[in-house]
Amino acid sequence: MLAMQYEITLPADYDMAVIRRRIAEKGHLLDGFPGLGFKAWLYSTSDDPVLPGGTNRYAPFYLWHDGEGMNAFLGGAGFAALARDFGRPVVQAWSVWQALSSGDLSTAVCASREIVPIPEDACMERWREHESDMAHAAVTEGALAAVTAFEPTSWTLVRFRLWPDFRAGLTDNACRLYRVGHVSQAAIAH
């Protein structure tokens, strides 16, 4: 599995209704996309009273079952249109250690994302076990999804969570907070 995110930072006076409308109109287009676990259509606004300290941003987060789906998306018409409209963003990708979900992801209203450096002397096995425990704890505390992944070029770790509500305390962490406009999910087999 792979986790992926790109962020498009927008000017402070950008009309974020444009982003909310884009999500409303295009969100369903990735429902059932081959190889997709989920795509959380995320954004933040500089004037958000609930998530203070934000910046105008469009920052979707993806969980892919494999590289084939990710490559098809990045090489497809949807991403080409985004690059045409906003410029081609830098895409961060991580190898997934843990991906848990609980409940209906479509009810998510808030996401948190933290990127932390992995110390050079870290025991990767213990680090991974600790992060697994943290992901399980987040789900126990109400997270609808908890993804932990790492990137060995820069030796960073991402902790991503989808939440069904805005939680006091999330703003206390050194992490980015986003509103969730839509969650596209894999096709459900019947």
What report would you give on this structure?
The chain has four helices and ten strands, in the order ββαβββααββαβββ. It has about 190 residues and is α+β, with helices and mostly antiparallel strands. The two termini are about 25 Å apart. The model has no long low-confidence stretch (mean pLDDT about 90).
What characteristics describe this protein?
alpha+beta, 24% helix, globular, 10 strands, 190 residues
Give the arrangement of secondary structure elements.
Layout: E1 2-5, E2 8-9, H1 17-26, E3 36-44, E4 57-58, E5 61-64, H2 67-74, H3 77-86, E6 92-101, E7 110-117, H4 124-140, E8 145-151, E9 156-163, E10 176-185
Antiparallel strand pairs: 1-5, 1-6, 2-4, 3-4, 3-5, 3-10, 6-8, 7-9, 7-10, 8-9
Ends apart, CA distance between termini: 23 Å
Q: Which structural class is indicated by helix and strand composition?
A: alpha+beta
Sequence of secondary-structure elements:
EEHEEEHHEEHEEE
Mean pLDDT: 91
In terms of DSSP E residues, the strand content is 25-35%
Count, helices: 4
| Rg over alpha carbons | 16 Å
Biggest beta-sheet profile: 8 strands, antiparallel, barrel
State the low-pLDDT regions, or none: none
Give me the count of strands: 10
**Quick one: overall form?**
globular
Q: Give the strand order of the largest sheet, numbering strands 1, 2, ... along the chain.
A: 1-5-3-10-7-9-8-6
Helix content bin: 10-25%
